[in-house]
Protein 1
Amino acid sequence: MAQMESKPGITIGSDPEFFLRRNGKFVSSIGKIGGTKEDPAPLEREGFFIQEDNVAVEFNIPPADEVSKFVDSIEWTISHIRDKISPYGYTAAFDAAAIFDETELKHPKALVFGCDPDFNAWKGGAVNPKPFSENTKLRTCGGHIHIGYPEAEDKVFRHRLIQAADLHLGVPSVVPDTDTQRNSLYGKAGAFRPTPYGAEYRVLSNFWLRRREWIKWVYEAMERAYKFTQEPKNWEILDHEAERIQEIINTRKWGAVNEVVKLYGLSPCSY
């Protein structure tokens, strides 16, 4: 692998989601958390927000320029939310997908899904098909990663960065993230949205919220993906491994992960 040096000005943030659970059952967040997509509720720390997203809880952290800040932001927000909900008997559930009772889905907001499309970096930024589930009681949670970087206006670089994120994050994540329900609808290889500051990587579920070492891994793996993308010679690796990377992520091909991780010196994300 070619020698890589980072450019300054990289920031990494996230807007992950999780479910609420009470007495062993998943319960809707509607009316319990506050905040909306259009008007998220601010938390005590500046730049931190929370909102009800369908039946899930979503929170936003400010972009971090070092791993310790990213870890602290995620852990502080989860702890803060837990303190708010625990007196009412609710706990945080970091399941990527859940089946809700119909009684929890009667509110009109429980039927509203994000309508903005995302795109496929492996197909030149083509629009991904809108997901459809025959099970109307299924809900899913994402753990999207936002990265800001100096080349934000370069579309080719953006696509390569998302492909590199698939290699460095998407492939290793298949081992700890055993979910297949969300993966059948959302989070296919190459899923992203462009942003003014860079890109939103939309492949990961919320699995990484469960452990501090996984939160740390997410930041550092995205940082490595950026450094990898800075060297155009590494793009040859992405072209060579394009089919295998997508297959591993899209079909949850666990058995192929270790070979790719060892071959390219990736940082594993395992139990």
Protein 2
Amino acid sequence: MANESTYTSMSALVNSIIDTALLTASEQSVMAPLVRSFNDSNSSTTRIWAQYTGGTIATITEATDLAMQAFTPAAAGTLTPAVYGSNYFLTDRRINSDPFGARADAGADLGRLMAVNVDSKLTGLFSSLSGGTVGTAGGTLTWANIMRASAYIKTNYGPAPYVCVLHPVQWYYLTSVASSVPTLMQSEKIKDSVVGSFYGGSFGGIDFFVDANITSGTAAVGGMFSRDAIALDVRQPFKIELQRDASRGGGGWELISTMEFAYGVYRPTFGCNLVGTSS
């Protein structure tokens, strides 16, 4: 026998699709590296986390016998994972006639779709941050708003450093005013990281990023937060599986991308939402 059409003949194409998809997903992920990430389980069970009741400090004398205080955990929230996916079908005819275009386009788009899905879900949590709200619907964000949000988080004992993620147009308004724009420092470490292309600069212990996955509008909601304000709990990382379908369209390959994760606010008082137009 000779001239068999085997998986081996497809392996270079498939590997390139997977590599391109993973690279695109990484390059398009703004929020994932900035929040509290869990990747210690591949189970689909709900994660429950707890917070402890706090004690008090008393003045004591040499004769004082300190009374014991309760240190009891109580459930503070849950993260429930779900599976997300997308599917492309590349026919043999398309692969044979346009292999490099099909490979690059399919790989890049599968990665982009999942990255945008994750990012949009995380930025959608900004309105659930309960540390405070600054700005107004229809207005433009100011540096006074920025510093007030930082003060809110500090008042709530949110650990530094802080991250501020804004819609690109919100960032434009913030940095294009005629005066009172502070000198933004540039971190070479952040610029060289996976989120470097979204980095705008740093000021006052705050690292600024732009994210076009924030929903646009006259009342767009950006966020400033300490890492523990938001959680991303990955149970099964982004992956692509290949499946042969010989009966469809004369034969072809299904590219099935999936990812299982949970997301939610983790310490909501450690973050503020920043409201301002992105129009």
